[in-house]
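User: I've been going back and forth on whether these two constructs are worth ordering. Before I decide, could you fold them both?

Assistant: Sure. I'll take them in the order you sent them. The first construct and its structure tokens:
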Amino acid sequence: MPCPNDAGPPATGRKPGPDLIRQLGSRPLALAILAGMIAVLLPLGLVPAWGEALASALLVLGAALALNLAICTVQHWHHLPWGILALHLGVLAVLAGALLGRAGFVATVNIHEGRAASRVFRWDLGQETDLGVRVAVRRIGRSYYPVLLRVGLWKGEEKVGLFEVASGGSFRAQGLEFQVLDVDLEQKMVRLQVVRDGRSLGMVASDGTGGLSGEEPWRPQLVAFRTPVVKTLWVELELLAGERVVASGRAGVNEPLVWEGLRFFHTQTAVDEAGRPYAGIQIVRDPGLPVVYAGFALLALGGVSRLGRWWGGRR
């Protein structure tokens, strides 16, 4: 740790505090605590049966490190470089945020598409509880990496041709450009935008919607496609208080829907025995997260300062 050694009085000549306080803020104690944290972290993921006991030990060691660093900072703040002070405060903020996070919770629930649920499983309590709002899964969606398609194209009763095109791409026929707007592989539906000389003439789709004014009806058909690779999974959620929608939006694995301090993540998509799709939703409340982010910002500032000082010294 970057705290000065406590073998003698501070550099300003002030008298040292009581021996116990000085020892609690000493560098050797900090190093011993860090060694203990490493010893706890090593088996934490290897021996699941020890998980709860090791997590409790890690919490105690984190609190001890926070106390050590706080005492060290208070004792020596008057002659610590600002970069070191920022590092100290950053570590304290991260540790404080982690402790605050213990007041939060993680809950999970599986909800069928088109259905809603208000009961969730709280992992900290080990039981189901009421969330206070109903979570409705309006749609389960997925996006794919570009897929190679074979699209048949008819003009009236005349078959114009069979075209190979990637989703998001385009092809030309009879002086027109046909751009792939949307593909629904489950419904085998494709929508094309028709362009002539850079100007859109309209949209045509395999379900018969759209059309071009003054032209015979164009009709595309999705004939075949290569097996797609899923790029992202997401759900469209609504949060309901009674019948009133209090929040709505899309949630993904790393893009949660946020409402009232709760973050709603989409964790899985599957089907039940009857073939009905459902989504796994994880609800997280972490009141310490803003404090942790502030700590990371201070650590970054302190790190840049110390790196600049080191680099300037080398030059």
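The second construct, handled the same way:
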Amino acid sequence: MIYAKLTSKNSVLTLMSVALLGLLAVPVATNAQNVAAAGYAQPTFADLVDLSDRSTLVVHAEIRRQTRVKAERAPDLAPGFARLYIQAETIALISGSGGLGESLDYLIDVPLQTNGKPPKLKKQQMLLFAREVPGRPGTLQLAGPEGQLTYSPELVARVRPILTARVSPDSPPVVSGIKDALAVQGTLVGESETQIFLDTMDRSPVSISVIRRPGQPAAWGVSWGEIIDSSARPPAPETLRWFRLACSLPERLPTVANLSQGAAARRIAAEDYRLVIDQLGPCERQITQG
């Protein structure tokens, strides 16, 4: 990142050349992601959770100045893009704490226009997903190349529930995979119950139950704790709990995780897991890779 507040064009370029030598650059992403970085793409719910998870700050800012970084100082830049040093003014801190001042600076990759020049971003308002650079007040590192999105009240209204859910006492843990699954057949034909236990990053217990009864549609739910709740329900779409499952679970139940006894029970476990995945629906992303 750029570690100084600069007042003239020459000083901007001089100090940029020094700062860029030690820059921990954001990894180069696909063109679609870089287009998103300029604020031109519409993020999905999953995109917004991805960005929120990577950030400690969400800032509403207005761009005051942009300076193009010379190509030799951005060797990892994708073809057809320009790297800009942005100086901006804080309008509001949407999420996060600390001594964030009125002035901000950061780097961003943007697609070139048909004339070979970067778009003019001055006076545009952006929503920034970022982290502060330690010891460099006002300097931000965006949460990836897509960490700058065009500001709108509607976008903030979509982001706020995510930010609130992430810091709530019952915020769901990050799911990292399947621990094991076990299907048990009942005494009646078509009766069974499958328990699927999940791995989480903080080792918090999470389990999915799928219950089948003769003549009834299969019912499933998620228990977010030690106690397996037989009345648990699926998470509502486009909630943080939905995201933790839909955007983390594998498409199929891993064979090594299926502890069911017998071919019939193993088939039921696999089918019940497939039911859960189908009803959760796809985790759609437009600007992030998760």
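Notes on the second construct follow. The first helix runs from residue 9 to 21. The chain is about 25% helix and 30% strand.
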